[in-house]
């Protein structure tokens, strides 16, 4: 794949603002959130990724929250003027875009996972801008630092481009190019939303979640084949078109008073669920990452199916995956969920449904904690209901 640049209004090296021989300001070099260094040298084995997602304030926060990310910084990249200032970059005459430098440990998080976050969390179809921010300084960009990153990014562009097309969205307009010099932004821009919690963040995705196929593990690079086979062996376990009568439980016949009758018609589901819940549970939709009510919740209890009350996951199997969705290592019982082979959006994944009402819950991946079985049940918050009165059971 050739490097791509979508810059109809881009300045040239000849018309760009003049260079500065040295930076015109100082920065502390210390990450305001985790105290790490945002300037080289970085820890041995760490790798560097550079992304442009519009205004860098919100983009940086997305990445510093991910487990496996060592440090982050914001700056200017992809242009011509050396050592630019924020004011100069905002003119659009430096050729730079606002960018995030992401230093990560590839043993804990893969570049592929960073690409998934990148494509999901902003609109890569918008040309020279994001949301209400317009200009080449807000363009979407992936700047690769290695040949391996180029291969991963090229594949991701192709796969997510197909997913966007299948969803009726515009094609990807993201710039893909080799990473050049990264020029750090002024100190007040670094970790801006940590220093200013109510500050501006205009990021908004397309509504299409990027989930890329690839090697076995995102969070555990050396995950053994046995963990992956747990997913492969289980899917498909049930026919999703099978008659539901066998699984329609009568709450009066169960000791579980929290079970709800399984709706018999689509109209009943629509009356029972909110529009968002219906779109996820009954139409296999996906809520936007990091927006769900249970993403970071640690309260004890039992997670039930929002649609029918079926017990699904104990809170002590929940872990922080950094994916942006509630994640669990296992269900309360093999009979609590059903696993279905899913070929939507040009990918092969394993869908997780409630075994009682057959509602869509999320997907399961073989990249969970290896010491806890190696699986990650990635669920939608709006498909779950946390019962804090229940006794947590492993």
Topology summary:
Layout: E1 47-53, H1 56-64, E2 69-77, H2 86-90, E3 97-104, H3 111-121, E4 129-130, E5 133-134, E6 140-144, H4 147-166, E7 175-178, E8 183-184, H5 192-195, H6 225-234, H7 266-272, H8 275-281, E9 302-305, E10 311-314, E11 318-319, E12 327-328, E13 337-342, E14 349-354, E15 360-365, E16 376-379, E17 384-387
Parallel strand pairs: 6-7
Antiparallel strand pairs: 1-3, 1-6, 2-3, 2-8, 4-5, 9-10, 9-17, 11-12, 12-16, 13-14, 14-15, 15-16
Short description:
Helices cover 19% and strands 20% of the residues.
What would you note in describing this structure?
The chain is α+β, with helices and mostly antiparallel strands. It has two domains: 1-214, Peptide Methionine Sulfoxide Reductase, Chain A, CATH 3.30.1060; 225-387, Metal Binding Protein, Guanine Nucleotide Exchange Factor, Chain A. The chain is 19% helix and 20% strand. It is built from eight helices and 17 strands. The strands form four sheets. Strands 7-6-1-3-2-8 form a six-stranded mixed beta sheet, covered by helices on one side. The chain starts with 46 loop residues before the first strand and ends in a 7-residue tail after the last strand.
Keywords:
six-stranded mixed sheet, Peptide Methionine Sulfoxide Reductase, Chain A, alpha+beta, 394 residues, six-stranded antiparallel sheet, 2 domains
Task: Specify the CATH architecture of the largest domain.
Answer: 2-Layer Sandwich
The CATH topology of the largest domain comes to Peptide Methionine Sulfoxide Reductase, Chain A
**What gap, in angstroms, lies between the N and C termini?**
48 Å
Number of helical segments?
A: 8
Q: Give the structural class.
A: alpha+beta
Give Rg in angstroms: 23 Å
Strand count: 17
Strand content: 15-25%
Give the biggest beta sheet: 6 strands, mixed
Low-confidence stretches: 4-8, 215-228, 233-253
> Class of the largest domain, according to the CATH hierarchy?
Alpha Beta
Q: What percent of the residues sit in helical stretches (DSSP H or I)? A: 10-25%
Mean model confidence by pLDDT = 86
Strand order of the largest sheet: 7-6-1-3-2-8
What shape does the CA trace take? elongated
Order of helices and strands: EHEHEHEEEHEEHHHHEEEEEEEEE
């Amino acid at each position: 794949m050739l490097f791509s640049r979508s810059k109809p209004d881009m300045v040239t090296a000849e018309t760009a603002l003049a260079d500065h021989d040295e930076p015109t300001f100082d920065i502390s070099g210390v990450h305001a959130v985790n105290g790490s260094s945002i300037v080289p040298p970085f820890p041995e084995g760490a790798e560097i990724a550079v992304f442009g997602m519009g205004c860098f304030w919100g983009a940086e926060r997305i990445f510093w929250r991910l487990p496996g990310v060592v440090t982050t910084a914001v700056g200017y990249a992809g242009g011509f003027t050396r050592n630019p200032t924020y004011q100069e970059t905002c003119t659009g005459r430096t050729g730079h875009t606002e960018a995030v430098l992401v230093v990560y440990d590839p043993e804990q998080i893969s570049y592929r996972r960073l690409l998934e976050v990148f494509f999901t969390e902003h609109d890569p179809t918008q040309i020279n801008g994001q949301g209400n921010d317009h200009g080449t300084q807000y363009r979407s960009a992936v700047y690769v630092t290695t040949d391996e990153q180029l291969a991963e990014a090229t594949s991701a562009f192709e796969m997510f481009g197909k997913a966007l097309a299948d969803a009726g969205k515009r094609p990807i307009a993201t710039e893909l190019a080799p990473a050049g010099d990264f020029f750090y932004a002024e100190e007040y821009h670094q970790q801006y939303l940590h220093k200013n919690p109510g500050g501006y963040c205009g990021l908004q995705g397309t509504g299409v979640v990027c989930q890329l196929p690839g090697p076995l593990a995102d969070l555990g690079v050396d995950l053994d084949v046995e963990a992956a086979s747990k997913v492969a062996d289980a899917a498909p376990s049930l026919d999703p078109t099978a008659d539901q009568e066998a699984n329609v439980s009568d709450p009066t016949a169960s000791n579980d008073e929290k079970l709800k009758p399984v709706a018999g018609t689509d109209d009943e589901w629509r009356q029972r669920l909110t529009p968002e819940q219906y779109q996820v549970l009954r139409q296999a939709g996906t809520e936007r990452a990091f927006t769900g009510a249970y993403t970071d919740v640690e309260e004890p209890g039992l997670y039930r199916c929002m649609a029918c009350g079926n017990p699904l996951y104990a809170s002590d199997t929940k872990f922080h995956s950094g994916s942006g969705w509630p994640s669990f290592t296992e269900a309360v019982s093999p009979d609590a969920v059903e696993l279905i082979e899913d070929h939507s959006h040009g990918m092969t994944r394993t869908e997780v449904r409630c075994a009682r009402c057959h509602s869509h819950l999320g997907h399961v991946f073989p990249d969970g904690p290896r010491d806890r079985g190696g699986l990650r049940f990635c669920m939608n918050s709006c498909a779950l209901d946390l019962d804090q009165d229940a006794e947590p059971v492993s």
